[in-house]
Amino acid sequence: MNEKHYDVVVIGGGPAGLAAALSASEQGAARVLVIERDRELGGILQQCIHNGFGLHRFDTELTGPGYAERYIKMVKATPSIDVLLDTMVVDLMPDKTVLAINSVEGLQKITCPAIVLAMGCRERTRGAIRIPGTRPAGVLTAGAAQRMVNMEGYIPGKKVVILGSGDIGLIMARRMTLEGAKVLAVFEIMPHSSGLTRNVVQCLEDFNIPLHLSHTVTAIHGRERITGLTYAAVDENLRPLPGTEKYLACDCLLLSVGLIPENELSREIGLNMDALTGGPVVNQERETSLPGFFAAGNVVHVHDLVDFVSEEGDIAGRFAAHLAQGQTNVGAQEFSVTPGHGVRTVVPQKIKIDVKDPGTAKLYLRVAEPQRKITLSVSSGGMTLLEKRFPVAKPGEMIVLELDASQLEKVVGDVIVEIKR
């Protein structure tokens, strides 16, 4: 077995992993390794050929591959970063030993003082939402269809229905239309879209594609290939309403019903997990409950913008490099961050504060339901640390609040983030 040692090992070569590797190298890590199971770096960005990436990060509008290319070039130009492609991590151990395998070097044992988890997320499938009916061809996730159309050059159907209004589903509604297919409808079980407002406008409204809120698919029909489906309205408990069922003929159903952080390795080493985000519990340095393990990007919580993913990768890589060089805040206090009234999730779930140098902390949060003219409040021990007004807040759009050193100095107990009543 080949044995190697690195200062920082990054698992995943998507936007979070690339940003983490660059950040770790910039912070003094002498040897950084990126392990990617695909045949090329970039992760999901390689199949996202639409624009809208990089507005925050590079102050310009890029396609997904264009955004990835910038990071890939920077990684390749950094001598201290090694990359293993077509390589699968088969085992991860709490002592920070990584077992990885590929067809060229075989099984490899890699040791290091710091690991960054950047495995991204996967799509929720038909089995996860239990749609009744037969199991014909033509039913697939929106992301699988995106790869099929944009990278493989195949179109999965001509009369398309999309279930779920996540961003990938909305973008594929536009993509399928541009490829000559007819998108008959988009059904969303919630009373509001789960994607970005700009995608609803640019991908549905601009192409006259109907969006049916509070509707879901209740049955799939067809033997060899899907021939149609039954859809129905749902009540306030998201249950189909009897008598509202209708039949719609189609030859393709795309599912955009949510993303799940890819955390099999995280669970394998016993990290504390957040039931709401589906990712590991982290502090503002993106360190998990197990010292030396950091996490960033969609493996922590699902993002709406890749710019935020890269920002998290920067943070994780920076502090992973610090730990690898023996720089740790031994005397720092850690406090919990919890969502309060009207807020569904907050990341990080912990804040570590060193009284000598409190630093800063960015809170990434999502509201529970769409609201207008709200005030978000961050408090600790009954004392308000920060209040900020927002004209509109939607569950599909991430909100970022930043606490500076003067505000963190006032933290005396658990931090609560909520919509002010």
Describe this structure in words.
The protein has 3 domains: 1-122 and 259-328, FAD/NAD(P)-binding domain, CATH 3.50.50.60; 125-257, FAD/NAD(P)-binding domain (3-Layer(bba) Sandwich); 331-421, Immunoglobulin-like. The model has no long low-confidence stretch (mean pLDDT 94). The chain is built from 9 helices and 29 strands. It is of the alpha/beta class. α1 (15-26) runs parallel beside α2 (64-76), α1 packs parallel to α8 (306-324) and α5 runs parallel beside α6 (197-204). Strands 6-3-2-10-21 form a 5-stranded parallel β-sheet, with helices on one face. A 5-stranded parallel β-sheet has the order 12-19-13-14-15.
Keywords:
five-stranded parallel sheet, 9 helices, Immunoglobulin-like, single chain, FAD/NAD(P)-binding domain, 421 residues, alpha/beta, 34% strand, 3 domains
